[in-house]
Amino acid sequence: MKLNYLTQGLVNKNYRCSLLGHRFVETKKINIHFSEYQCDVCKLQATNDSRGQKITLTSKLKDINETLFYLNLKKQFISKFYFPKKEQ
Ligand SMILES: [Zn+2]
Questions:
Q1: Could you tell me the distance, in angstroms and rounded to a whole number, from the CA of residue 72 to the centre of ligand 1?
Q2: 86: in domain
Q3: Any domain includes 54
Q4: What pLDDT score was predicted for residue 4?
Q5: Torsion-angle region of residue 28: left (phi > 0), alpha (psi -120 to 50) or beta?
Q6: Residues whose Cβ atom is located within 5 A of ion ligand 1
Q7: Distance 37 CA to ligand 1 centre (A)
Q8: Which of 10, 36, 77, 79 is deepest in the core (most CB within 10 A)?
């Protein structure tokens, strides 16, 4: 019985999350609207949707975030190097 309890550790962690809610920590900032998060307890990955609600990070969403991330980088790059602020 004791062994069973140990092997169920992961399940119990998830149980704790479903009971108390996930303890999300921001792992990656995509842009000002989107970020990626990971739960400190069960390592569940999440992102936020356009309404700011946390949703499970699927591989499809991860691809979208990756694209958004690089678009944002590109935008920053362009604004920095191609449209520098005019000297006063
Ligand atoms: Zn969790």
A1: 29
A2: no
A3: yes
A4: 55
A5: beta
A6: 17, 22, 39, 41-42, 44
A7: 11
A8: 36
